[in-house]
Design a protein that fits this description.
The protein is mainly alpha-helical. It has helices at about 5-40, 45-80, 85-90.
Amino acid sequence: MSIELVNHIIKQALITVLLASAPALVIGLLVGLVISVFQAVSQIHEVTLAFIPKIVAIFLSLIIFGPWIISVIIQFAINLWANLSNYGTM
């Protein structure tokens, strides 16, 4: 197995991880930003006010985007398994 092939596999794995985690991270970031602005405007600084809505938003984003996340991961695994015989011969 050549270094280029290993680099390609690692690159595809990192892209898959970024794609799979992006919906939850972006939703969490946006909800956190909205809550931070609300806390700054209202001067209410309660920890649970920031924590609970982010958990709920991330949970809902995983429910909504779950099938797409699973399909991205499955596509990566199928591609890896389909080319497994080529990896051993190089």
